[in-house]
């Protein structure tokens, strides 16, 4: 966490930063981009779930009986902000295969940069689950704020956000609107340009995932 943004954790592990370099590169093709994003998503969810509660379970090893920790507490739900968030879901589910998955469809109005919702589908018991929202880019933060507004309206009290990249403007927006929501990212980039894109960034994550550049 930083002094400026107590809601933010930047994962500086060398493997994360190495893979992020190739995600940024314009020379990385669509297939490689998808694979890299899946791998980095696994590393970010590893960090985001560091504080999951555990309890002891009595098991028998080939040698003896022992009490060993297992995850306890509320079940998890991964909520993808469409469409780019779907590029992170497979990587997250590789480590959390029993998590439910919800989707929130938002697009950014090119004139106002404000989010417009077109789809919302989450598990009926989301209020009883810990929610992790995934979206590769935290730019203005407006989409993340709108998504978390909707999730909180569903009664969910425990929410985290995972983004591949974040801009200071987006992190500050989240801190103002949802100071209780921790953010985990691989990089806090410099700023947003006049079109609301993260600089240096990696371009439009959705276009690079789906080859629609």
Task: Describe the structure using short key phrases.
single chain; 213 residues; alpha/beta; Rossmann fold; eight-stranded mixed beta sheet; two-stranded antiparallel ribbon
Radius of gyration: 18 Å
Topology pattern, helix = H, strand = E: EHHEEEHEEEEHEHEEEH
Taking the sheet with the most strands, its summary is:
8 strands, mixed
By secondary-structure content and strand pairing, the structural class works out as alpha/beta
Q: Which overall shape is indicated by the principal axes computed on the Cα atoms?
A: globular
Amount of helix: 25-40%
Contiguous uncertain segments of 5+ residues: none
> How many helix segments?
6
How much of the sequence lies in strands comes to 25-35%
Tell me what the structure shows.
By secondary structure, this protein is α/β, with parallel strands linked by helices. The protein has one domain (8-210): 3-Layer(aba) Sandwich (Rossmann fold), CATH 3.40.50.2020. 32% of the residues lie in helices and 31% in strands. The protein has 6 helices and 12 strands. It has helices at 14-24, 30-48, 86-95, 142-153, 168-177, 205-210; strands spanning 8-10, 54-60, 65-71, 76-82, 100-108, 115-121, 130-134, 137-138, 159-166, 183-188, 191-192, 198-199. Strands 1, 4, 5, 6, 7, 8, 9 and 10 form an 8-stranded mixed sheet that branches. Strands 2-3 form a two-stranded antiparallel sheet. Strand 9, helix 5 and strand 10 form a beta-alpha-beta unit. The longest helix has 19 residues, at 30-48. The two termini are 34 Å apart. The mean pLDDT is 92.
